[in-house]
Amino acid sequence: MCGPEFAGSVRVRHRAVGFDVLGSTLAVLVDRPVGPRDPDGYPDRGIDWYDIGGLRFGSDPAPAGGAGARSASAR
Description:
four-stranded antiparallel sheet, 4 strands, mainly beta
């Protein structure tokens, strides 16, 4: 097989800077959108946590509307 192969995908709400997976948890370092409380014009950074235990990885993708990642982030 040629080209990229995907094990799965997760939609992240903000701009991802980095990530790590530990067990069934995906932690993503993100830049949050610049808001009115950001007078310096730089976005805040945060960590979004996702429970990816319901995702199936590999060549048998989850059916549409099936189990997916759930965000556990406070924002």
